[in-house]
Amino acid sequence: MLDTLTYTPVHGEHTTPPITVYALSTCGFCKRAMTYLEKNKFAYRFIYMDAIPIEIKNEAKRTLKEKFKVDIAFPFATIGESEHLVGFIEADWKRTLGL
Q1: CATH fold of 2-94, please?
Q2: How confident is the model at residue 99 (pLDDT cuts 50, 70, 90)?
Q3: Stretch 53-73: mean pLDDT, rounded?
Q4: pTM
Q5: Domain ranges, ordered by start, for the chain
Q6: Are 42 and 97 spatial neighbours (Cβ–Cβ below 8 Å)?
Q7: Which of 35, 49, 79, 83 is 20 to 30 A from 98 (CA-CA)?
Q8: Nearest Cα to 76, choosing from 21, 12, 10?
Q9: What angle do CA 35, 37, 38 make, to 5 degrees?
Q10: Residue 81: what pLDDT?
Q11: Can you give the chain as a three-state secondary structure string?
């Protein structure tokens, strides 16, 4: 299901692990998270969940919740196949991304 969504790529020097950010276009924390990735030269892809139909958004949230066993809040980032970040707490992102 998540593979059928249309993501916007952002290029950067660090391309592994693959990072996907699920965000809201009006979310200040989402903007800070994406700025943090860009500042630290990470490549990533993102999708604004408030820009897609509600049924697709709800199915994507259900899929993420089932896979990662957590409640979904934004930003929600997947790092590789098994790690994730919920919200933007810089220390958590720094630790998870190995900075």
Answers
A1: Glutaredoxin (3.40.30)
A2: confident
A3: 95
A4: 0.94
A5: 2-94
A6: yes
A7: 49
A8: 21
A9: 65
A10: 87
A11: CHHHCCCEEECCCECCCCEEEEECCCCHHHHHHHHHHHHCCECEEEEEHHHCCHHHHHHHHHHHHHHHCCCCCCCEEEECCCEEEECCCHHHHHHHCCC
